[in-house]
Amino acid sequence: HPYPILTYISAFLFLRAAFHLAPNRRMGQLAALGGNRSSLYPYASCAPRKRSAKDIRRTSIHEAGHLLFFGLLPRVPENLAVRVRSHNPIDNSFLGQVSHSEPVPEEKTEAYLRWAMAMYLGGTEAEHIVLGERAPGTAIDTESWIANADLFLNSGFGEVFYARPTDRARREHNRAVLNALKTETSQSARAFLNQNIQLLEELATVI
Asked: Cα dist. 190→3, 19, 120, 177, 203 in Å?
């Protein structure tokens, strides 16, 4: 299920929107975000320290990878924002984050779940494409991907998947199905990002 290439016009408008929505990354403290936590996207954490330009660029690329997938939605969510910190937070919370004020849909369709799975892998895939390697610190991305993949498979959208595996054979089957789905999602996400590599790098520079 390859993702479509963004048109030039929509890509340009999306880039302009991202530029205006991106706060100064030298901000020391970020305002607390209200609303449903499910609308907050994954972050990496580490011990407090001043971040190098190289680390900031990696995080910017990572968040741009997530952000680019929002261009595939019918409309950009309200209050879409991108944050990249220049210092590690004292509370060890996040280094970069994409967020918006809209809750996730109550009824998640197959198309939405495919989008969500690709979006959550978009950060690490962007790092791999631009930098040639991925850094640790994406545990919440992985957890979120697994949650959406589990719902996807238990909804009957993919291969046979046992909701409550009772023996080793069924557990191994589920593991193989999850791994195959992750590989498929990674390949689709990577293909989409490669098709939009110039916009990916421009977004990383802007945020």
From this structure: 10, 23, 12, 20, 16
Side chain identity at residue 158, one-letter code: G
Residue 88 neighbours by CB under 8 Å, 6+ apart: 46, 47, 48, 49, 50, 51, 95
Q: What is the pLDDT of residues 66-117, one digit of tens each?
A: 999 998 888 888 888 888 877 776 665 677 888 888 888 888 999 999 999 9
Cα–Cα distance for residue pair 145/185, rounded to 1 Å: 10
Is the separation of the CB atoms in 138 and 44 below 8 Å? yes
Q: Summarize pLDDT for 44-68 with one digit per residue, the tens.
A: 444 567 888 888 898 899 999 999 9
| Residue 58 to residue 175: CA distance in whole angstroms | 30
> What is the spatial distance between Cα 38 and Cα 8, in angstroms, rounded to a whole number?
31
With a CB cutoff of 8 Å and minimum separation 6, the contacts of 134 are: 124, 127, 128
Asked if 195 and 202 touch (Cβ cutoff 8 Å), the reply is no
Q: What's the DSSP call for residue 40?
A: B
